[in-house]
Amino acid sequence: MTSDLLPISRIPRTGLPEHAVVVGAPERAADTAELLDGCVRVAQHREYLTFTGTWKDVPVVVASHGVGAPGAILLFQELADAGVSTILRLGTAGAMRAGIQDGSLVIAEAAIRDDGVTQQLMPPEYPAFAAPEAVLALQQAAKEAGAQHHRGVVWTRAAFQPGWLELPGAYARTGVTAIEMELSALLVLASARGLVAGGALVVDGANADELVDIEATGGYDPHRKVVADGVARGVRVALDALCLLAKEDGK
Ligand SMILES: O=P(O)(O)O[C@H]1O[C@H](CO)[C@@H](O)[C@H]1O
Ligand SMILES: O=c1cc[nH]c(=O)[nH]1
């Protein structure tokens, strides 16, 4: 007999709202869920912590996917299997371009598929692009919240720690805005499964490769107030964008 729960995230197979915000950290999912009316924890397994509730009268899912695209895509796939049709990721990222302040938002238009998992699912030529309506909804919500934001291509990279390759310099020269670890997997899966998806990222410093020079930069520290304030703003922006998309859907 088929279980009522999906195997990896343990989310229910049926009955979830169609619109979801996903975040990396379980504690961020819990903090975000506290903003919802009628918040209910519907699943907790491994790094996947999932809530439902309503935001401005729109039923939503809030879930964590952990660090890294191979694990995150399992949640994205199970959300799709459970009937979720719109997914926005609110994450953190390192800035790759001068002039992008800590705590500001980068709204992804597309992502470089260096995620370490989608290459095993589809050809490398397949694009990872955000749904245009998701980009515009995130932009509108950021504007309405007075949140400093930028738009551009982000680099999704499986490795967080710097290695021995000189790729960051090359990508920086192409104008890439920010680096994070999961978004391209969400965008590719969404295109292939007919979902609407996008992402906004709170800048928590420069990219990790630059932050190894701790004396010059202070190192990677995503625990600063400027980042926490940015995340607090960012989750509201993502939820507001989800509402805009739900209204477009007539929900
Ligand atoms: O803040 P989250 O959503 O976890 O995003 C970023 O932070 C983690 C690395 O510290 C990676 O998951 C990266 O994508
Ligand atoms: O994935 C991430 C997140 C923040 N900074 C980085 O360099 N990479």
Could you characterize what this model shows?
There is one protein chain. By secondary structure, this protein is α/β, with parallel strands linked by helices. It has a single domain, classed as Rossmann fold. It has helices at residues 26-33, 69-81, 132-145, 167-173, 183-193, 214-217, 225-248, and strands spanning 19-23, 37-45, 48-55, 58-64, 86-95, 105-114, 149-157, 178-180, 196-206. Bound molecules: 1-O-phosphono-alpha-D-ribofuranose and uracil. Uracil binds at residues 92-94, 160, 179-181, 204, 207-208.
Overall helicity: 25-40%
Radius of gyration: 17 Å
Count of DSSP-assigned helices: 7
Mean pLDDT metric: 96
What is the name of the CATH architecture?
3-Layer(aba) Sandwich
* CATH homologous superfamily descriptor: Nucleoside phosphorylase domain
Q: How many domains make up the 3D coordinates? A: 1
- What is the CATH topology classification name? Rossmann fold
Structural class: alpha/beta
Determine the N-to-C terminus distance.
Answer: 33 Å
Largest sheet: 5 strands, mixed, barrel
Topology, number of strands = 9
Order of strands in the sheet with most strands: 5-8-7-6-9
Order of helices and strands: EHEEEHEEHEHEHEHH
Strand content: 25-35%
What is the subunit arrangement here? single chain
The low-pLDDT segments are none
Q: Which molecules are bound besides the chains?
A: 1-O-phosphono-alpha-D-ribofuranose, uracil
Q: What does the overall shape look like?
A: globular
Q: At the first level of CATH, what is the class? A: Alpha Beta
